[in-house]
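Memo to structure team: turn this sequence into structure tokens by end of day. - J.P.
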Amino acid sequence: MGEVSGSAGAEAEAPQRFLREGDGLAVAGVACGVLAFFAFGIILGTSALVLGALAHDVRPSWLAKSGFAAGIVALLWSFLFLAVGG
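Reply from structure team:
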């Protein structure tokens, strides 16, 4: 039998991934930072801070910096809220 022309015998290319390594940690950090404004501010703010820092260690990106920044702002907001007596 004859060989079929085309790329049937060639190895298929691996699909490109939308999220790269470390982006999951960064997304989790941003999500925790945003949720910290509504509930459990100190706990979720700290989580956002840690997850953003870990994501930045794996792969520095704007998303990792956003998670880190969201954690800092959420912690400051929570402590200000506690200091005012809310």
